[in-house]
Design brief:
Length: about 550
């Protein structure tokens, strides 16, 4: 027997429609890449998204067509999320920090028909256009006054001109909730980029999921500033969750440096933010240097790479900001787990509670998970046994976009994350490593993440990475690569001594190398594939 409730398909445009109706005067504030601030309301954003939808239809954009973006976190990028998806087309956010060859691969693979870009990226797109033949029209996300005097970009026009020609008297259409709405390629940290094609259904469910109190906890009383870019897994869903909840949204544009971020946190009264560890490590240094304090910021989500407990501790003790550790991937929309305490943890000491909150956390409803051994059998949740992490749920990828090779699914339909983890009896998952980063020494596994977390707890360390280097006796041994804090000194011996007694003897790194900077991926994570190349042939004494 079927239920008798309304069969309303879940659609992304209903989120902005809801915000425009019930939070009509709540603001979206953004820093324009071409200069100056922009400020308007959800009602205005819905209207302009509809103007954009009409412009796209006039240009012949059809259901399922890909519309690419090379853009920062701005109000226009926000309008593209809704305007493109709202007509049944696919908003393909592209990470401009990728190498040009990767960008060309991604644009051609997706066959983007239109490409919207910020002024910052004009020189970049002029190089890309000749080798991206599917793009019929390049749209500069600014007013016509910023168009170059001469350009060979096909169909070049300004975003504001496109919108100005439309009235915005448009009704968002209804269609199957399984229709694709956005496309995001994995950043190719370990492989060629692969496209993850989200649906309206998966996106709306994910926006509900991340809003929950034990997930990211979003509310109409919040001022949310995603520092994670809108081209990095849809800014982790916050451009959907903010209007869904009626929170004010602050978009930092191209100003991702600590000083610019701090200025916006303060002037706009931001309460809640999100970003990868690198951003917060830099911001911590900036706050310490100027003995600065946040007035309104009370929490931030840190994910995308392991958050060092030392960073969590410093933010809480020195800056009064709670770090919520979360795990996810492009393939999981991205939220999978968050490390929030349970009622039973109420009496724990700060150190004990940090021990739990530094794990990657519990499954959010919507994402089931398990760990399996080499034989594919499930391992116990005892916090000790570690194995391949598998996930399952309505916002987890089934197949990659347009690949002949099958996705990463097991025979019984679970997605192989490529991460190695433990799960404790309370359900807290803890990533020991990416399977490709695990160090295998004398048949035993060493967690590079644990060693990195420890290294950054040293006062003279700004950033650290651990990789395996070949060893005749042990097959691999850990090498620690350290970036010192400006003006701070620490010797190799002091650094190695720091591990003594803090980890098992055989986990202690065999050597330390000091570098001026570490290589990072386009999403701000440490690029271990490059580091392994940099130290190829390295031998420990
Ligand atoms: P890419 O695969 O290109 O790096 P993703 O952003 O999809 O792009 O990366 C997902 C991966 O990032 C996860 O599989 C995991 O290895 C790592 N990751 C994400 N969040 C965390 C976290 N909190 N702790 C440890 N690793 C994390």
């Amino acid at each position: 027997m079927l239920g008798l409730m309304m069969a309303e398909p879940l659609r992304v445009a209903t989120i902005i429609e809801h915000a425009a109706k019930w939070h009509s005067d709540t603001e979206i504030v953004s820093r324009r890449p071409e200069g100056g601030m922009h400020r308007y309301t959800y009602a205005d954003a819905n209207h302009r998204s509809k103007q954009l939808a009409q412009a796209l239809l006039k240009l012949g954009v059809e259901n399922g067509d890909r519309v690419g973006t090379l853009a920062w976190n701005t109000h226009r990028h926000f309008e593209l999320y809704y305007g493109v998806a709202g007509i049944g087309a696919v908003c393909h956010t592209i990470n401009p920090r990728l190498f040009p060859e990767q960008l060309v691969f991604i644009i051609n693979h997706a066959e983007d028909r239109l490409l919207f870009f910020d002024l910052t990226f004009l020189p970049l797109v002029e190089r890309l256009a000749p080798v991206c033949p599917t793009v019929e029209k390049w749209v500069l996300m600014a007013g016509p006054e910023h168009l170059p005097a001469a350009s060979d970009l096909p169909g070049l026009c300004s975003y504001e001109d496109l919108l100005a020609a439309e009235l915005g008297d448009y009704q968002w259409p209804s269609f199957d909730e399984n229709t694709a709405c956005s496309l995001c390629y994995t950043s190719g940290t370990t492989d060629q980029p692969k496209g993850v094609l989200y649906s309206h259904r998966s996106t709306v469910l994910h926006a509900f999921g991340i809003s929950l109190p034990d997930a990211l906890s979003c509310s109409a009383s919040d001022v949310i500033m995603p520092v994670v870019p809108m081209f990095h897994v849809n800014a982790w869903g916050l451009p959907y969750a903010a209007p869904l909840n009626g929170a004010k949204l602050v978009l930092p544009g191209a100003g991702m440096d600590s000083a610019s971020l701090f200025e916006l946190f303060e002037t706009e009264g931001v309460t809640f933010s999100a970003g990868v560890p690198t951003i917060w490590l830099a911001l911590l240094q900036f706050m310490r240097e100027g003995q600065r304090r946040f007035t309104t910021l009370n929490r931030t989500v840190v994910g995308g790479a392991a958050c060092p407990p030392a960073l969590m501790k410093a933010f809480e003790e020195e800056l009064n900001v709670t770090i919520m550790h979360a795990w996810g991937m492009t393939e999981t929309s991205p939220l999978g787990t968050t490390a929030r305490l349970k009622g039973k943890h109420a009496g724990l000491s700060p150190a004990e509670s940090l021990g739990i909150r530094a794990k990657q956390g519990r499954a959010v409803f919507g994402v089931d998970m398990k760990i399996v051994g080499d034989d594919g059998h499930a391992l116990p949740h005892d916090g000790v046994a570690f194995g391949d992490l598998l996930v399952h749920g309505p916002w987890v990828v089934r197949d990659y976009f347009r690949t002949a090779t099958p996705g990463e699914l097991t025979a019984d339909g679970w997605f192989r994350t490529g991460d190695v983890a433990t799960i404790d009896p309370d359900g807290y998952m803890h990533i020991t490593d990416r399977s490709k980063d695990v160090i295998k020494s004398g048949g035993e596994w060493i967690s590079s993440i644990e060693l990195e977390n420890l290294a950054v707890a040293h006062p003279a360390v700004a950033e650290a990475a651990v990789i395996g280097v070949p060893s005749a006796k042990w097959s691999e041994r850990p090498l620690l690569v350290v970036v010192r804090r400006p003006g701070m000194e620490v010797s190799a011996d002091e650094m190695l001594n720091f591990f003594r007694g803090r980890v098992a003897k055989f986990w202690e790194p065999d050597a330390v190398e000091f570098v001026n900077q570490l290589p990072h991926t386009a999403t701000g994570k440490i690029l271990k594939t490059q580091l392994r190349k940099d130290f190829a042939g390295y031998s420990v004494a």
